[in-house]
């Protein structure tokens, strides 16, 4: 879904306007934050004024990125105002912008840049590429369209988005195009080994403690094709862990031989559960997540369910079991 006119329309949106609000999805990951700062870097090069915003909190492990410290969060206390020109990156649907929507003017014009197949095409202008491994990959194309000269700052930002959304260049979305872009970014100054160490190897004590707790609860369906873990907000408090310390937990059940779908349930409160879904390839977990108002990718998706934890587990495991019985998609 790579149409040149999309990149040209997005480029005109940036050239012809000023005073932008740049937002990404709630509970941001590496691609969301790297895409946010990448857009900020580009706007800075174009001589535009802009504000970077995310509901937050932000993953501290990404603090090395250019512009990270300039991202305004709901807890920052910095004054905000309505913006007429908005750029949303890595948001699979409009609801994913979260609290940021309160800063959209009533007549706001919005540029939607995203790679999730479940994106519903919101916004005034859309730059969507469902074949892209990450939103950062789309932004690389936008940088090229605008003739931006790469430096180490933007190279590290785009490389971060690619690395995190491809699982360190290991997932099926690691295409020849991704590797060609990564090569160009390394040539422009991206610190490949350093980023791999920071993002893929290093672990916090809170992450270790949460992994121990979650693995002690590892459960499987009778046929062994579904595996799941669960954690609670109390676990986070007791271990001193943060939400970013939960990244990667869902891969433990999915990586077990014979497991087709891995699930992580995070209890947000007495009646709210966040679910992460990962597929080994035979189940479209995006379609499962959509049944509960979520979305994402064929192999990696998420949703939020308004129910108690036991009910959420029963409902999602049941939906995955039905998808498995229906056969490969």
Please render the helix and strand layout as text.
Layout: H1 4-16, E1 20-24, H2 30-45, E2 50-54, E3 72-73, E4 83-89, E5 104-114, E6 125-128, H3 135-145, H4 152-165, H5 176-187, H6 192-201, H7 205-215, E7 219-220, E8 226-232, H8 233-239, H9 251-254, E9 261-269, E10 272-279, H10 285-290, E11 295-296, E12 300-305, H11 309-326
Parallel strand pairs: 1-2, 1-4, 2-3, 4-5, 5-6, 8-9
Antiparallel strand pairs: 7-8, 9-10, 10-12, 11-12
Helix pairs in contact: 2-3, 2-4, 3-4, 4-5, 4-6
Structural write-up:
With 329 residues, the chain is α/β, with parallel strands linked by helices. Helix content is 37%, strand content 21%. The protein is built from eleven helices and twelve strands. The protein has helices at residues 4-16, 30-45, 135-145, 152-165, 176-187, 192-201, 205-215, 233-239, 251-254, 285-290, 309-326, and strands at 20-24, 50-54, 72-73, 83-89, 104-114, 125-128, 219-220, 226-232, 261-269, 272-279, 295-296, 300-305. The chain has a six-stranded parallel β-sheet with strand order 3-2-1-4-5-6. Strands 7-8-9-10-12-11 form a six-stranded mixed β-sheet, sandwiched between helices. A hairpin with a 5-residue loop joins strand 7 (219-220) and strand 8 (226-232). Helix 2 packs antiparallel against helix 4 (152-165). The longest helix has 18 residues, at 309-326. The chain is globular, with a radius of gyration of 19 Å. The two termini are 20 Å apart.
